[in-house]
Design a protein that fits this description.
The protein contains 21 helices and six strands. By secondary structure, it is of the alpha/beta class. The strands form two sheets. The chain has a four-stranded mixed sheet with strand order 3-4-5-6. A two-stranded antiparallel sheet has the order 1-2.
Amino acid sequence: MATAARATASDRYRPRPSVLEALRSPRILTKEVLAGLVVALALIPEAISFSIIAGVDPRVGLFSSFVMAVSIAFLGGRPAMITAATGAVALVIAPVAREYGMDYFLATVILAGVFQVILGAVGVAKLMRFIPRSVMVGFVNALAILIFTAQIPHLIDVPWQVYPLVIAGLVIIVGMPRLTKVVPAPLVAIVILTIITVTFAIAVPTVSDQGELPDSLPELLIPNVPLTGETFAIIAPYALAMALVGLMESLMTAKLVDDITDTHSHKTREALGQGAANVLSGIFGGMGGCAMIGQTMINVKASGARTRISTFLAGVFLLILVVGLGDIVGLIPMAALVAVMVMVSVATFDWHSIRPGTLKRMPIGETIVMVATVAVVVITHNLAIGVVLGVVVAMVIFARRVSHFTSVTRTIDEDASVPTAHYRVDGELFFASSNDLTTQFEYADDPDRVVIDMSRSHVWDASTVAALDAIVTKYENHGKRVVIEGMNESSSAMHARLTGNLGGEG
């Protein structure tokens, strides 16, 4: 039985198709290779722009994307997910580069990776089960909006030729799959639009306009910072914030890919892999990062990749393109990449969630949680803040909802040898539902004997035990005896452990 259980757990995390299956299938391998190439092209302008946000040289973001993509392909727990330099991480650690310099910046990235390894080892990934579906939908919709709004600057104050190029790119991406899916449509759009702009010498913004591409390989860099408590005090808050933001975004993205591919990912391994990838990124002079929802959607949804091969090749192609073919890559019009990202945002958004029929059927609380998550993420541009707030709102709404499911029924037994008031408590008792429990008893009017039947309820926390103690005390102050009966085993154990020891029961 134990062997069968282990086999089932192993099968659950087994990738489909596996790397070996992909290598043996020319069709699957071709799809993985081309997907990696498309992602690499899309990573270049993103990595450059995130470097600018972080206040570092463009090569720092590009090298970080290469190191993280390659390392997570081996270490991560979610096949086909893309990890690279991201805007969320850049925003968190930007003050370090600005105020303390590059060495402290790299030390922060390395320490963030160490924190992620520690958090992964203690099981933080298991907290993902507490994120409600409404928060997940809000997370996805907010990401789609952020991906779209990030393209707007590339469409403002640009030559008029940019607009027909973007439209042509959208037409290719939408129409190409109807003809053939052998070659990813985004790659076809990038190649065709690049050929058009070069052939007809159309002057539009290109990748080379976003920043200087590196011309050498990344080198091993050990941060030159004093190993003192003062250094730790400076970088630790930024490193912890980066670790938490990176893990949350990565684990949420992994869950999204799980849903898209109908497969399972190993969340703890992903957390550990993210940490190791950030450590390696810092050692090789990178800015660190986490999973990228946009590029992951290009890889998984637009290109149909399913294995670690595409993730690995995305990093390899990125390095080859920027170091060996930088002059050619620099010719790619930004209009082509904007078209790709616009289609990614459209495909990412959960349109079903905002249909009138869905909104009508959905409980109002679920809609409030989704909208709150979207609003906070879009306003702050911080996915972690939005998700945490969404979870908090969901918890408050849930607590309010279940607090009304508790009821107290009173009957008087006049025929007993001793007149007795019987109270039956129904429902789940915790801080939200037990606060009003003391108000539902007739202390002055009840007979001298009171029985409280708890057989149809459950005690979840100390607040409930304190409420029961307060009820007993109030009856005793009226000279009446109370018997609490019918508690299940766990409720009885908690009550026995805490009753009389919480203070202030009167």
